[in-house]
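Subject: design request, 201 residues
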C-alpha cells in the first residue's frame, strides 16, 4: 500500500469522524430571576435576536442596579380583565448607563405576547433600564410599519419562563398612587412592589 493510499484512508476516516460527531450546541440563553416581595419571575433573554437590548439589561443586572428597585406601574387594558403589563426599574438614586440603540420588533421578530419582557422608552433610542412585562398579548406595542408618527414600537428582548402568575398578581394590585404624568393616572402601584434582587440563574 502506498503512502498516498494511507493518506487517503486517513482523510476518509477523519471525514467520517466529523460527520459522526454531534454538532456544537449553541450556548444556553441567559436567564434572570427577578425576586420580588410578591414572588419570583424568571425571564429568558433572546440575546441572539436582540443582542443590544439583552446585553444592556444584563449589564444592569450584573451591576446589581435593579436590587432595591420596584415594579411601580400596572398598565391595565381598559375593559379586559387581567390584561395589561407591569413596569419596573432600579431605585431613583441609581446612575443610569447611556441610552441604547432601538431594536425594533420589525428587525428582531420578537412580538409582545403574554410574558414578553420589553424596554420602556420615550423616543426610539432613549431606553436605559426601565422595563415592562406583558401579562397578556399586546400586539399594538410591536412596530407598525407604515403607521403615522413613531411607529417603531418597543424593544422586546425575551420572555417569562417561570412566574407569569406573579406578573398577573402584580397587575391586579391597587394602582391609585400619584401619577408621574397624566397618561399614567390610575396606573401607579400603591404601594410599589419591591424588587429584592435580580441575578442570573
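Subject: RE: design request

Done. Sequence follows.
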Amino acid at each position: 500500500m502506498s503512502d498516498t493510499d494511507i493518506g487517503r484512508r486517513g482523510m476518509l476516516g477523519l471525514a467520517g469522524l466529523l460527520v459522526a460527531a454531534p454538532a456544537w450546541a449553541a450556548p444556553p440563553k441567559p436567564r434572570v430571576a427577578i425576586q420580588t416581595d410578591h414572588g419570583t419571575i424568571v425571564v429568558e433573554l433572546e440575546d441572539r435576536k436582540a443582542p443590544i437590548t439583552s446585553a444592556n439589561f444584563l449589564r444592569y443586572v450584573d451591576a446589581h442596579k435593579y436590587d432595591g428597585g420596584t415594579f411601580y406601574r400596572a398598565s391595565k387594558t381598559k375593559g379586559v380583565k387581567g390584561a395589561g403589563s407591569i413596569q419596573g426599574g432600579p431605585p431613583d438614586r441609581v446612575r443610569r448607563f447611556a441610552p441604547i440603540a432601538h431594536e425594533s420588533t420589525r428587525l428582531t421578530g420578537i412580538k409582545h405576547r403574554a410574558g414578553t419582557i420589553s424596554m420602556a422608552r420615550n423616543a426610539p433610542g432613549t431606553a436605559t433600564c426601565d422595563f415592562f412585562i406583558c401579562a397578556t398579548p399586546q400586539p399594538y406595542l410591536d412596530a407598525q410599519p407604515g403607521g403615522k408618527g413613531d411607529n417603531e414600537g418597543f424593544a422586546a428582548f425575551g420572555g417569562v419562563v417561570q412566574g407569569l402568575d406573579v406578573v398577573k398578581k402584580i397587575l391586579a394590585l391597587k394602582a391609585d398612587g400619584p401619577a408621574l404624568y397624566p397618561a399614567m393616572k390610575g396606573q401607579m402601584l400603591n404601594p410599589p412592589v419591591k424588587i429584592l434582587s435580580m441575578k442570573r440563574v
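The two ends are 57 Å apart (CA to CA).
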